[in-house]
Design a protein that fits this description.
The complex is a heterodimer of chains A (about 625) and B (about 80). Chain A is an alpha+beta fold and about 625 residues long. In chain A, about 40% of the residues lie in helices and about 15% in strands. Chain A has three domains: about 5-205, Aldehyde Ferredoxin Oxidoreductase,  A, domain 1; about 245-440, Aldehyde Ferredoxin Oxidoreductase Protein, subunit A, domain 2 (Orthogonal Bundle), CATH 1.10.569.10; about 450-615, Aldehyde Ferredoxin Oxidoreductase Protein, subunit A, domain 3. In chain B, about 10% of the residues lie in helices and about 25% in strands. Classes of the chains: A alpha+beta (about 625), B mainly beta (about 80).
Chain lengths: ~625, ~80
């Protein structure tokens, strides 16, 4: 529907909800969702703000394609200053919440201040009000959704909420919508918890309106959908096997981080893979995978819906987990599994369920457990301190630690601080596999060189979704590049980063980029949105968004030294596989990357660059 | 000579019945190429998107000439992606 042209501003301190017009000049310069919400955050907050203080703001924002017929047009973004990193946080989620916000007639919601008591926001089209959430506080995300729907006698309400992790301000708490979709990274759920905001419940019945040229938009979106359907990855591979198909791929190329990045291949990778999810279990004759699932408007449907083995020790006495639910996706399966040396796929699904139920990022949680297990094996942490024996490979420890972290009990409180703080506390900061305090996702930067640069320079800390060079370096999308070399990677990283900023800001899923290029997105935006949305402009807007985020981080106090990888990846060579003997060549790539970006050798955008981008 | 042949995702069904998971150990003639093994097991070329020997990508143009050697591991995927 293009833009709804309306913002909901919620002052939690005062308990007020007010409508105001969207700044259309900013929309023209920053598009929507990630880009536009960041612009608002930059203009309205001090970058040095304490992320968990009332002075920080949290914005839930849609893009101009959210809620439209564009494939995957259901995304929304949570933008704030991240407590895990101290950097810009923008976490993107699918499901149905984003489209519902548009159907209610809003582009974004800006939350400011802090409520004196737990509340939730209820929005029904133009009507918005804060309601008491005393009966919801302490409940899980799943219980919260169920309770709100029952209270309003409306099963079609769409809800984003925090669980106990967000309430307890676990620094990697996420915001969960539609039971198992999440704005997952950087601790946006902790910010929501710090504001005593338990949930946002939406009911929108206004439908779609405001498309600039309906006929042209339908034609463009239909043509783009055909591209997705005809593409073997988005039309066949992702629906059938999901992201989890990468487990064996990344292991085979020797880039599956294992046991806190000590190793690059996991001997039990096949046991936690997509193929394993299709295999019938010996215990009940059923495969773990039940079906695939799609978010709003998605014609790919990569999501996994699974049933855990009811006889598994983690759930044998907990029937509430026996039904079909979300997971496993690749990143979660890796972080909970290979990162800890755990090859028990049912234990991974249980830990994944608890992350969804209580609102935790399984990547940061799993990777932090990896650091705990390494320190346990080194003798730095003891069974008495942790509350359980925690050697690599222990499914029992994983299960116990996820319960402790979700409930904020015992050593779980320390895990909830994330790996950087935890490893520093125990004298081994080098064991935190993170950038800017955010834990790595599922690709080892020794076996995939470009992703190391993407991790180091990601504005929200280590992240694969800000510059997914794996598509090129491993899968050959759009062209195959050699994962073992650094040559050409700075340009590749920059191109992926700038283009991804457009996909995110448009309100569509970045997975479309396995088949689409910006040339497939451009006709949809041009038909939906007023103004000039040429390829040239999109390229400029993408680069502008990236530089704006960078400027925010610099103003927050981050410097070039924060664009770095842990020493393990730069000094400890891969032991096996194609990357055997290699470390990541970040120090070779980074200066060239800065130069390509038009930044100084210290990583600061030059005045020429800022002027060129209108910043 | 002995080699290991791995087919994943929707290609799994092309493996012989004696497969263990996605893997089968084979005895092949010296000089057997990547393409020859694909042909023997009727793996459609258009479905063989990601072809790795010992984890290293073999481009389509080299599959007819790349000869396997003792102990090599040939792994093939259809077009897949994730994130």
């Amino acid at each position: 529907m293009g833009w709804a042209r309306k913002i909901l501003r919620v002052n939690l301190t005062e308990g007020t909800c007010a409508s105001e017009p969207l700044n259309m000049q900013w929309a023209d310069e920053y598009l929507g969702s990630r880009g536009l919400a960041t612009k608002y955050l930059v203009e309205e907050t001090d970058p040095k703000v304490d992320p968990l203080s009332p002075d920080n703001k949290m914005i839930m924002s849609t893009g101009p394609l959210t809620g439209t017929m564009a494939s995957t047009g259901g995304r929304y973004t949570v933008v704030t200053k991240g407590p895990l990193t101290g950097a810009i946080a923008c976490s993107n989620s699918g499901g149905f919440f984003g489209a519902e916000l548009k159907f209610a007639g809003w582009d974004m919601i800006i939350f400011e201040g802090k409520s004196p008591k737990p509340v939730y926001l209820f929005v029904e089209n133009d009507r918005a009000e804060l309601r008491d959430a005393a009966n919801l506080w302490g409940k899980s995300c799943w219980e919260t959704e169920e309770t709100i729907k029952r209270q309003h006698q409306d099963p079609q309400i769409r809800i984003s909420s925090i669980g106990r992790a967000g309430e307890n301000q676990v620094l990697f708490a996420c915001v969960v919508n539609d039971l198992h979709r999440a704005a997952g990274r950087s601790g946006v759920g902790a910010v929501m918890g710090s504001k005593n905001l338990k949930a946002v419940a939406l009911r929108g019945t206004k439908g779609t309106s405001g498309i600039k040229d309906f006929k042209a938009f339908m034609q463009a979106s239909n043509e783009a959908k055909k591209v997705l359907a005809d593409n073997a990855v988005t039309g066949e591979g992702l629906p059938k096997y999901g992201t989890q198909v990468l487990m064996n791929v990344i292991n085979e190329i020797g880039a599956l981080p294992t046991r806190n990045h000590r190793d690059v291949k996991f001997e039990d990778a096949s046991k936690i893979s997509a193929e394993q999810m299709h295999e019938k279990r010996a215990t009940d004759g059923k495969p773990q995978l039940v079906t695939n699932a799609a978010c709003f408007g998605c014609t790919i449907a990569c999501g996994r819906i699974s049933e855990i083995d009811k006889t598994h020790f983690s759930v044998v006495n907990s029937p509430k987990y026996w039904g079909a639910s979300g997971g496993l996706e690749y990143e979660a399966a890796w972080a909970l599994g290979a990162a800890n040396g755990v090859g028990d796929i049912e234990a991974l699904q249980y830990a994944n369920l608890l992350c969804n139920e209580h609102g935790m990022d399984p990547i940061s949680f799993g990777a932090t457990v990896g650091a705990v297990m390494e320190m346990y094996e080194m003798g730095v942490l003891t069974e008495e301190q942790i509350g359980t024996a925690a050697p690599f490979g222990s499914a029992e420890a994983l299960v116990q630690l996820v319960e402790m972290t979700a409930n904020g009990e015992g050593f779980g409180k320390e895990i909830g601080e994330g790996s950087r703080r935890l490893c520093t506390k125990y004298g081994h900061p080098e064991l935190s596999m993170s950038v800017k305090g955010q834990e790595f996702p599922a690709y080892d930067a020794r076996g995939i060189q470009g992703i190391g640069l993407a991790y180091a320079t990601s504005n929200r800390g280590a992240c694969h979704l800000r510059g997914y060079t794996v598509a090129s370096e491993v899968m050959g999308i759009p062209v195959k590049t050699d994962p073992l070399v650094t040559e050409g990677k700075p340009a590749l990283v920059k191109a992926f980063q700038d283009a991804t900023a457009i996909f995110d800001s448009a309100g569509i899923c970045v997975f479309t980029s396995f088949a689409w290029t910006l040339a497939d997105v451009q006709p949809q935006l041009a038909a939906a949105c007023e103004g000039d949305w040429s390829m040239e402009k999109l390229e400029t807007v993408g680069e502008r968004i990236w530089n704006m985020e960078r400027q925010y981080n610099l103003a927050a106090g981050l410097t070039r030294k924060d664009d770095d990888l842990p020493p393990r990846l730069k000094t400890e060579a891969a032991k096996v596989g194609p990357a055997k003997g290699l470390v990541n060549g970040l120090d070779t790539m980074l200066p060239e990357y800065y130069q390509l970006r038009g930044w100084t050798p210290d990583g600061v955008p030059s005045s020429e660059t800022l002027n060129r981008l209108g910043l | 000579m002995k080699v290991v042949f791995k087919l994943f995702a929707s290609l799994t069904d092309y493996l012989p019945p004696e497969r263990k998971g996605n893997i089968v150990a084979l005895e092949v003639d010296a000089g057997t190429t990547v393409l020859a093994l694909m042909t023997r097991y009727q793996v459609p070329e258009k479905c063989a998107h990601l072809v790795l020997v010992n984890g290293v990508f073999i481009p389509p143009s080299a599959r007819a000439t790349h000869a396997l050697t003792e102990g090599d591991e040939l792994a093939i995927w259809p077009p897949v992606a994730g994130g």
